[in-house]
């Protein structure tokens, strides 16, 4: 028997403890977003243009260009990276890819290579070598605190460095730059050692101050020719692919971050009684579920939580396939399905938590046997709210929020709003062996 099974509370036990609860019907609502994505046929052109916008004049002919690629689930990432590789080669240089993902992939060279492969980034697919190595070299230290600054040794040895990353709100802090090119240099390119150093110092020196200072030091010490910044819209489609010169890693990145905030997917309600998430994972958010979406940041050090939404209970059903068992951030949930407990890769998850100094983030919530048990216990612990009046949302994950299951009070509210439409009227929930019978793909 898997260890997770020992932690699972049977459905019968939950029902007996909570009492019979008539679960409310759920309808389907849809958010109306005005978006302007880059067409699939133009992705390659935009990525090549991003490289063309950068200055390679200091790079010797046939010099090696280290292209940093991370571990997040970025739309069109294989196509973008392949186009960047081709554009670099077309300019007469020798590109190679290095994983710039901190401790992800179990903090092993092979694990990080496997993560890239899961995004269809392989030598055959992108047309260049992948040099995966956890070794780093120290390239300096911060002037005031003496914090050692390290970087991937393959990147350090190259004639030029070119990170490719998505710019988006971070899950653990607010600042002028959050997730993006600068953070990839500081934490992603620092591998496990650099990521751990950064997170340890963040305990007293916040990321909002640390990332810019160390990024500037790296830009001064290493041959960074610029970066390729990506911004995605509410549909997880590519909206911007832009070449950012080293001088713009802080200024232009801050502007792109504002755009990312404006067009990121969010829940359409500020107050919920229960949020059900079908999946969480590192490909969805660094904390498994985006803290900016759920309004919870319980593991960040010296950082305030988002002002909204306010959610009384979160029930999470599974780990995404691409997260490879990494359950970072599972502690943000109040209850989880046994699928999560049985699929956790304990070693990978703990290494990530140690590196990020957020061990509370991997505390396992109470584990229930079925979805019926999960929804029942959630509704039974929200106070005196009548289940028929409960505000319930079920979503695929915190990245995909266009189409949502919603309880009657939220469906009724959706009728009055121009940014929402009702796709299906509320119907009784169908269960199969105690689990939801329908997935979003079937609706």
Tell me what you see in this structure.
This protein has helices at 3-6, 11-18, 43-52, 77-90, 109-118, 123-126, 153-157, 181-188, 191-202, 207-221, 251-263, 291-294, 338-343, 346-356, 371-379, 408-414; strands at residues 8-9, 26-31, 64-69, 94-99, 129-130, 136-141, 148-152, 160-166, 227-232, 238-244, 271-277, 310-316, 335-337, 367-368, 392-395, 403-406, 420-427, 431-432, 435-436. The protein is of the alpha/beta class. The protein has 16 helices and 19 strands. The protein is globular and about 75 Å long. The two termini are 35 Å apart. Helix content is 32%, strand content 21%.
| Sheet of most strands | 9 strands, mixed
DSSP summary, beta strand count: 19
Radius of gyration: 22 Å
Spell out the CATH superfamily of the largest domain. Answer: LarA, N-terminal domain
Strand order of the largest sheet: 1-14-13-12-11-15-16-2-17
Low-confidence segments: none
CATH class category name of the largest domain? Alpha Beta
Q: Please report which band the strand proportion falls in: under 5%, 5-15%, 15-25%, 25-35%, 35-45% or over 45%.
A: 15-25%
Secondary-structure-based class equals alpha/beta
Please give the alpha-carbon distance between the first and last residues: 35 Å
The domain count comes to 2
The number of helices is 16
Average pLDDT works out at 92
